[in-house]
Write a structure and sequence with these properties.
By secondary structure, this protein is mainly α. It has helices at residues 5-13, 18-25, 29-37, 44-53, 58-62. It has five helices and no strands.
Amino acid sequence: MKKNDALVEARKEMGLTQEELAISLGYSKATVSNWENGHSNPSLYDAFKVARILNKDINQLFLDINVQVSHTNKEEKPSEQKEVG
């Protein structure tokens, strides 16, 4: 599994140790270490709790892709276009 560098970086930015983050979540330091080292993943519920504590978007911490939202209008497919005339 891939090491979760985003989680490590966010935790350090907040000035928290693994143990401090673990205590705030009600887990052991080993659990946080396993998440950071890619040996296990938090549940969805725990991932949201971690994101809230670290003041980050859950996608920034746990997804390997950058999601960009486009605000452009959706174009109609050719089969959906109406004939004029």
